[in-house]
Amino acid sequence: MKRQTENKKRYQQLVKEISPKPHYIKNCTWAFFVGGFISMIGQFIHNSVERMLNLSHLEATNATILIMIFVGALLTGLGIYDRIGKRAGAGSIVPITGFANSIVSPAMEFKREGYIFGVAARMFTLAGPVLVYGITSSVLVGLIYYLLK
Amino acid sequence: MSYLWAFIVGGLICVIGQLLMDTTKLAPAHVLVIFVTLGVILTALGIYQPLVDLGGAGATIPLPGFGYSLAKGVIKGVNEKGFFGVFTGGIEATAGGITAAVVFGYMMAVLFNPKTK
């Protein structure tokens, strides 16, 4: 028994040594530049719509998010976003365009299972958890704020 | 100048996400959930707002920005509608984004097919 656990430990040690280490610096550099670049495009859209459509700051922020979601969904449909994502890692996952990507990607993939169980259900594989935890935590915050007010 | 700060703030938020994925066994789904929740909490504590003031889209485009909108919305909802606002404020502020994600997401998934790799 003791020997078995010892072997197990040694095995795990071996697995740890052999499994490839992620290239931290390379990955982080890609994430920084791609994530930063997407944010900069967002800022450009924000400034443009604010000026051209005469929107308030908050309206411009919301309009920017709409446009970015549209672009992220479109680029995913065209197969471009996943090609960026291969290198960019979190740089393409964390921005709101990545949220759109996480909706379109599985929905497209499972289309053969039909438009209800395939497309519509799979859209929320990743977006579902995000909405559940986001909305629930915001309700908790609201509740605490209401009680403290 | 606003572009530079958007780049830096947005880039750094993504680096934090990358580090979370590389140093732990967290999957992208975990990171996204953590980021949204963190966005809500940091906004409630008043920590995220300065980041938005500084970084603009660099703070609102990454996913914690979604949490920021939710939290800001729910506080506005409570201020305007009292208890009922606890349940309506968050979605009201993010309605556009959620609707866009559902409609555009569905549209693109129907229009396009996955590319064979």
List descriptors.
heterodimer; A: 149 residues; mainly alpha; 8 helices; 85% helix; extended; B: 117 residues; 6 helices; globular
Protein model, in words:
The complex is a heterodimer of chains A (149) and B (117). In chain A, 42% of the residues are buried. Chain A has 149 residues and is mainly α. Chain A contains eight helices and no strands. The mean pLDDT of chain A is 92. Chain A has helices at 2-18, 24-52, 57-77, 81-88, 90-93, 96-109, 115-122, 124-148. Chain A is 85% helix and 0% strand. In chain A, helix 6 runs antiparallel to helix 7 and helix 6 (96-109) packs across helix 8 (124-148). The radius of gyration of chain A is 21 Å and the shape is extended. Chain A has one domain (22-148). With 117 residues, chain B is an all-alpha fold. The N and C termini of chain B lie far apart (40 Å). Chain B contains six helices and no strands. Chain B has one domain (2-111). The model of chain B has no long low-confidence stretch (mean pLDDT 94). In chain B, helix 2 (28-44) runs parallel beside helix 5 (64-81). The radius of gyration of chain B is 16 Å and the shape is globular. Chain B has helices at 2-23, 28-44, 48-55, 57-60, 64-81, 85-111. Chains A and B meet through helix 2, helix 3, helix 5, helix 6 and helix 7 of A and helix 1, helix 2, helix 4, helix 5 and helix 6 of B.
